[in-house]
Design goal:
- The structure is a single chain.
- The chain has a five-stranded antiparallel beta sheet, covered by helices on one side.
- It starts with a strand and ends with a helix.
- It is built from one helix and five strands.
- The protein is globular and about 35 Å long.
- It is an alpha+beta fold.
Length: 80
């Protein structure tokens, strides 16, 4: 288990700062908390820049609704 800090979130993925190396292409299980609920989702490591990793979510419709709702709420808050 690795702990990291979330940097960016979108409906298709998330980026995070990690202290340990994770290989590109690796499928991982992510657990994190959003305003609309907890999320557990599988993702693939798509990119890396120093300690910042980009993860692309793999399909999970029930969880994607929590992510979608959070992204919409954050967009509204940032535009206001």
């Amino acid at each position: 288990m690795l702990q990291g800090q979330t940097v960016d979130l979108s409906e298709s993925g998330i980026s995070a700062l990690l202290r340990l190396e994770v290989p590109l292409g690796e499928v991982v299980k992510l657990d994190f908390e959003l305003p609309f609920g907890p999320v557990t989702i599988h993702a693939v490591v798509r990119q890396r820049s120093a300690f910042r990793y980009g993860f692309q979510f793999l399909e999970s419709n029930a969880v994607n609704e929590v992510i979608r709702s959070t992204c919409r709420q954050l967009a509204v808050e940032q535009s206001g």
